[in-house]
Amino acid sequence: MSLSGAALDGVWRLRHHNHRQATHTWPARSAGMSADVVAMWDVSLSDGIFRIEFEHGTATGRRVIYINGKEVFRRDWMFRLVGKETFPVGSAGTKATINIEAITGFAYEYTLKIDGKSFQTFMANRSKTSKTWLLKLDGADCRIVLEKDTMNVWCNGQQMETTGDFGDDSTETHFSVGDHDCFITASSSNKKRSGIIHSLLIDGTRVPEVME
Protein backbone atom coordinates (compact mmCIF):
# COMPACT_ATOMS: atom_id res chain seq x y z
CA MET A 1 0.00 0.00 0.00
CA SER A 2 1.08 3.60 -0.37
CA LEU A 3 0.64 6.26 2.29
CA SER A 4 0.65 9.97 1.66
CA GLY A 5 2.25 12.24 4.24
CA ALA A 6 0.03 13.88 6.84
CA ALA A 7 -1.59 16.88 5.22
CA LEU A 8 -1.80 20.23 6.98
CA ASP A 9 -5.47 19.49 7.70
CA GLY A 10 -4.52 16.32 9.60
CA VAL A 11 -6.00 13.99 6.95
CA TRP A 12 -4.30 10.67 6.17
CA ARG A 13 -5.02 8.94 2.85
CA LEU A 14 -4.13 5.31 2.28
CA ARG A 15 -4.32 3.07 -0.79
CA HIS A 16 -4.08 -0.70 -0.39
CA HIS A 17 -2.50 -2.39 -3.40
CA ASN A 18 -2.19 -5.82 -1.81
CA HIS A 19 -4.05 -6.81 1.35
CA ARG A 20 -1.77 -9.70 2.24
CA GLN A 21 1.48 -7.82 1.81
CA ALA A 22 0.48 -4.41 3.04
CA THR A 23 3.63 -2.82 4.44
CA HIS A 24 4.88 0.70 4.79
CA THR A 25 7.52 2.61 6.74
CA TRP A 26 6.50 5.02 9.48
CA PRO A 27 8.80 7.85 10.51
CA ALA A 28 8.95 8.03 14.33
CA ARG A 29 6.25 5.38 14.70
CA SER A 30 5.88 3.96 18.20
CA ALA A 31 7.96 0.85 18.77
CA GLY A 32 6.06 -2.38 18.32
CA MET A 33 3.12 -0.91 16.45
CA SER A 34 1.48 -3.04 13.80
CA ALA A 35 2.12 -2.50 10.09
CA ASP A 36 -1.65 -1.90 9.83
CA VAL A 37 -1.30 1.46 11.63
CA VAL A 38 -2.60 3.84 8.97
CA ALA A 39 -2.82 7.24 10.65
CA MET A 40 -1.15 9.17 13.43
CA TRP A 41 -1.76 12.53 15.12
CA ASP A 42 0.03 14.38 17.93
CA VAL A 43 -2.58 16.22 19.99
CA SER A 44 -1.61 18.93 22.50
CA LEU A 45 -4.06 19.24 25.40
CA SER A 46 -3.81 21.00 28.73
CA ASP A 47 -3.16 17.70 30.51
CA GLY A 48 -0.46 16.48 28.12
CA ILE A 49 0.66 15.74 24.58
CA PHE A 50 -0.93 12.59 23.19
CA ARG A 51 0.10 10.57 20.15
CA ILE A 52 -2.97 8.87 18.66
CA GLU A 53 -2.34 5.98 16.28
CA PHE A 54 -5.05 4.16 14.37
CA GLU A 55 -4.76 0.61 13.09
CA HIS A 56 -7.15 -0.45 10.32
CA GLY A 57 -6.98 -3.97 8.94
CA THR A 58 -8.91 -3.70 5.71
CA ALA A 59 -8.89 -7.48 5.18
CA THR A 60 -10.65 -8.10 8.52
CA GLY A 61 -12.08 -4.70 9.34
CA ARG A 62 -10.09 -4.65 12.58
CA ARG A 63 -9.86 -1.26 14.27
CA VAL A 64 -7.37 -0.55 17.05
CA ILE A 65 -6.55 2.79 18.68
CA TYR A 66 -3.34 3.49 20.60
CA ILE A 67 -2.64 6.54 22.77
CA ASN A 68 1.02 7.09 23.58
CA GLY A 69 1.72 3.48 22.58
CA LYS A 70 -0.99 1.96 24.83
CA GLU A 71 -3.95 0.15 23.29
CA VAL A 72 -7.18 1.85 24.41
CA PHE A 73 -9.73 0.53 21.90
CA ARG A 74 -10.17 -2.59 19.74
CA ARG A 75 -12.79 -4.01 17.42
CA ASP A 76 -12.09 -7.23 15.51
CA TRP A 77 -13.76 -8.60 12.39
CA MET A 78 -15.73 -5.57 11.32
CA PHE A 79 -17.60 -6.28 8.07
CA ARG A 80 -18.20 -2.57 7.50
CA LEU A 81 -14.87 -0.96 6.62
CA VAL A 82 -16.04 2.66 6.90
CA GLY A 83 -17.54 4.48 9.86
CA LYS A 84 -16.24 6.23 12.95
CA GLU A 85 -14.95 5.49 16.43
CA THR A 86 -15.22 7.83 19.43
CA PHE A 87 -12.98 7.61 22.49
CA PRO A 88 -11.70 9.80 25.37
CA VAL A 89 -8.21 11.30 25.48
CA GLY A 90 -6.32 12.36 28.60
CA SER A 91 -7.34 12.67 32.22
CA ALA A 92 -9.99 15.25 31.31
CA GLY A 93 -11.67 12.75 28.95
CA THR A 94 -11.51 15.02 25.90
CA LYS A 95 -13.75 13.59 23.18
CA ALA A 96 -11.98 12.37 20.04
CA THR A 97 -13.47 10.78 16.92
CA ILE A 98 -11.72 9.05 14.03
CA ASN A 99 -13.70 9.00 10.77
CA ILE A 100 -13.02 6.35 8.13
CA GLU A 101 -14.19 7.11 4.61
CA ALA A 102 -13.74 5.25 1.34
CA ILE A 103 -12.44 7.41 -1.49
CA THR A 104 -12.23 5.06 -4.49
CA GLY A 105 -11.51 1.36 -4.80
CA PHE A 106 -9.24 0.34 -1.94
CA ALA A 107 -8.37 3.92 -0.99
CA TYR A 108 -9.39 5.19 2.45
CA GLU A 109 -9.25 8.55 4.20
CA TYR A 110 -8.79 8.95 7.96
CA THR A 111 -9.65 12.17 9.78
CA LEU A 112 -9.59 13.10 13.46
CA LYS A 113 -11.95 15.39 15.31
CA ILE A 114 -11.30 16.72 18.81
CA ASP A 115 -14.28 18.11 20.77
CA GLY A 116 -16.25 18.10 17.53
CA LYS A 117 -13.69 20.20 15.64
CA SER A 118 -11.36 19.08 12.89
CA PHE A 119 -7.80 18.40 14.01
CA GLN A 120 -6.52 21.48 12.17
CA THR A 121 -9.20 23.79 13.62
CA PHE A 122 -8.78 22.44 17.14
CA MET A 123 -5.01 22.92 17.14
CA ALA A 124 -5.34 26.43 15.69
CA ASN A 125 -7.82 27.34 18.44
CA ARG A 126 -5.50 25.89 21.11
CA SER A 127 -2.80 28.35 20.12
CA LYS A 128 -5.26 31.17 20.76
CA THR A 129 -6.88 29.92 23.97
CA SER A 130 -3.88 28.53 25.86
CA LYS A 131 -0.29 29.36 26.78
CA THR A 132 2.43 26.78 27.32
CA TRP A 133 5.77 26.94 29.09
CA LEU A 134 8.41 24.19 29.11
CA LEU A 135 11.19 24.21 31.68
CA LYS A 136 13.19 22.11 34.10
CA LEU A 137 12.48 22.21 37.82
CA ASP A 138 14.76 20.33 40.20
CA GLY A 139 16.23 18.52 37.19
CA ALA A 140 12.89 17.25 35.87
CA ASP A 141 10.96 18.32 32.76
CA CYS A 142 7.97 20.49 33.53
CA ARG A 143 5.12 21.52 31.20
CA ILE A 144 2.85 24.27 32.48
CA VAL A 145 -0.29 25.22 30.56
CA LEU A 146 -2.68 28.11 31.12
CA GLU A 147 -6.22 27.94 29.76
CA LYS A 148 -6.92 31.59 29.07
CA ASP A 149 -10.72 31.29 28.98
CA THR A 150 -11.01 29.61 32.41
CA MET A 151 -7.61 30.62 33.92
CA ASN A 152 -7.11 26.97 34.88
CA VAL A 153 -3.47 25.97 35.23
CA TRP A 154 -2.06 22.51 34.50
CA CYS A 155 1.37 21.13 35.34
CA ASN A 156 2.52 17.81 33.86
CA GLY A 157 -1.06 16.63 33.38
CA GLN A 158 -2.39 17.71 36.79
CA GLN A 159 -4.74 20.64 37.34
CA MET A 160 -3.24 22.95 39.94
CA GLU A 161 -4.92 24.66 42.87
CA THR A 162 -4.71 28.38 42.26
CA THR A 163 -5.50 31.68 43.97
CA GLY A 164 -6.15 34.97 42.23
CA ASP A 165 -4.74 38.39 43.06
CA PHE A 166 -6.48 41.22 41.23
CA GLY A 167 -4.87 44.63 40.73
CA ASP A 168 -5.79 47.78 38.84
CA ASP A 169 -3.69 46.98 35.77
CA SER A 170 -3.14 43.22 35.97
CA THR A 171 -4.11 39.98 37.63
CA GLU A 172 -1.91 37.28 39.11
CA THR A 173 -2.74 33.57 39.33
CA HIS A 174 -0.64 31.94 42.06
CA PHE A 175 0.17 28.25 42.48
CA SER A 176 3.02 26.05 43.71
CA VAL A 177 5.05 23.33 42.03
CA GLY A 178 6.89 21.42 44.71
CA ASP A 179 8.72 24.02 46.81
CA HIS A 180 8.61 26.62 44.02
CA ASP A 181 6.38 29.70 44.12
CA CYS A 182 4.78 30.33 40.74
CA PHE A 183 2.39 32.88 39.33
CA ILE A 184 1.04 33.89 35.94
CA THR A 185 0.40 37.56 35.27
CA ALA A 186 -2.25 38.83 32.87
CA SER A 187 -1.87 42.44 31.75
CA SER A 188 -2.98 44.58 28.85
CA SER A 189 -0.56 45.11 25.99
CA ASN A 190 -2.36 48.34 25.06
CA LYS A 191 -2.39 46.99 21.52
CA LYS A 192 -5.59 45.71 19.91
CA ARG A 193 -3.90 42.84 18.05
CA SER A 194 -1.84 41.63 21.00
CA GLY A 195 -4.64 41.76 23.56
CA ILE A 196 -3.78 40.38 26.99
CA ILE A 197 -0.19 39.35 27.70
CA HIS A 198 0.37 36.34 29.98
CA SER A 199 3.72 35.77 31.65
CA LEU A 200 4.93 33.00 33.95
CA LEU A 201 7.30 33.69 36.83
CA ILE A 202 8.82 30.98 39.00
CA ASP A 203 10.67 32.04 42.14
CA GLY A 204 10.71 35.54 40.66
CA THR A 205 12.28 34.53 37.33
CA ARG A 206 10.35 34.99 34.09
CA VAL A 207 10.00 31.82 31.96
CA PRO A 208 9.85 32.17 28.13
CA GLU A 209 6.74 30.88 26.38
CA VAL A 210 7.04 28.11 23.80
CA MET A 211 4.99 27.14 20.75
CA GLU A 212 4.02 23.46 20.56
Automatic annotation (TrEMBL):
Q: Which InterPro entries has this protein been placed in?
A: FAIM1 (IPR010695), FAIM1_dom_sf (IPR038513)
Could you tell me the superkingdom of the organism this chain comes from?
Answer: Eukaryota
The UniProt entry, under Gene3D superfamilies, shows: 2.40.128.180
Sorted alphabetically, the Gene Ontology BP terms of this entry are: negative regulation of extrinsic apoptotic signaling pathway via death domain receptors
PANTHER family named among the record's database cross-references:
FAS APOPTOTIC INHIBITORY MOLECULE 1, FAS APOPTOTIC INHIBITORY MOLECULE FAIM
**Protein name (Swiss-Prot/TrEMBL):** Fas apoptotic inhibitory molecule b
Give the species. Electrophorus voltai
